[in-house]
Design brief:
β1 and β2 form a beta hairpin. The chain is 21% helix and 42% strand. The protein is of the alpha+beta class and 66 residues long. The chain has a three-stranded antiparallel beta sheet, covered by helices on one side.
Length: 66
């Protein structure tokens, strides 16, 4: 009998985010987050949730999964 872990492949991914402030005088923020032992779908979801990390501080974020 196959185990679920044998069918669903997990891997390590990196989420690269850039946050641009609405006030152009304030520097951008850049962050890299390691997403380890996740399926591609889970890593993609986790990375996408980081887009809004600094919204309350006036930043707009864009994150890309590698």
């Amino acid at each position: 009998m196959c185990k679920t872990d044998d069918i669903i492949k997990k891997g390590n991914y990196t989420c690269q985010c850039t946050y641009v402030n609405y006030d152009t005088a304030i520097a951008n923020k850049e962050e890299t987050t390691d997403l380890n032992d996740r399926t591609r779908e889970d890593a993609d979801y986790d990375c996408s949730t980081l887009d809004s990390k600094y919204n309350s501080q006036g930043y707009s974020g864009t994150c890309v999964l590698h």
